[in-house]
Specification:
This protein has 179 residues and is mostly helical. The protein is built from 6 helices and no strands. The chain has 2 domains: 67 residues; 86 residues, no CATH class.
């Protein structure tokens, strides 16, 4: 269901300024009739105009007092733009988080491409770093990569490094798509 408070705020502002315009018009015509610059065919018209002026003063007074009539356009603008500002802030925070993740992932991908597949300690270190990064970003495969880092067989480690690099690349690609 749409949020109608924004529409209500805009409508209240429009009503307030419409009533203010009618009030100003009535005041001007009433004053001009009192000094004789505007004449009516019947004196009853001048009395009715004066009654309308009194009624408008009462309506405006009650409306302002009850906070129904809002003449503060900035307040209405703030109410209208607040959800948009919040949405932009959320998007900006997501963009920043994506950039931060990419700053962590991309150097590790480069390292994964350069690590010698026969070098057991280097492969294990790469897998440990990868597992720590995956845990930092709450990826479900962090535990699996951590287990792979404890292996000692060069061929198994090489396969683990290759699959981990592919995983990191897919995560980076997903981050770029979200950005």
């Amino acid at each position: 269901m749409p949020d109608l408070t924004l529409h209500a705020a805009i409508i209240k502002l429009a009503i307030a300024y419409t009533l203010l315009g009618a009030f100003i018009f009535t005041v001007v015509i009433t004053l001009l009739s009192l000094i004789g610059l505007v004449e009516f065919k019947s004196s009853k018209q001048q009395g009715a105009l004066f009654s309308a002026l009194v009624l408008e003063i009462v309506v405006l007074g009650v409306g302002v007092f009850k906070d129904f009539l809002n003449f503060d356009a900035r307040k209405v603008q703030t109410e209208v733009t607040k959800p948009l500002v919040e949405q932009v802030s959320r998007i900006e925070a997501q963009r920043k988080q994506t950039e931060d993740r990419l700053q962590l992932i991309l150097p590790l991908i480069r390292e994964g491409h350069t690590v010698k597949r026969g070098d057991v300690p280097a492969c294990q270190e790469f897998l440990r770093k990868s597992a720590a990064l995956l845990q930092t970003i709450d990826h479900p495969k962090h535990a699996e990569v951590a287990v792979q880092a404890n292996r000692t067989d060069p061929n198994t480690l090489a396969d683990s490094v290759n699959s981990t690099v592919a995983l990191l690349e897919s995560i980076a690609l997903e981050q770029v798509r979200q950005k």
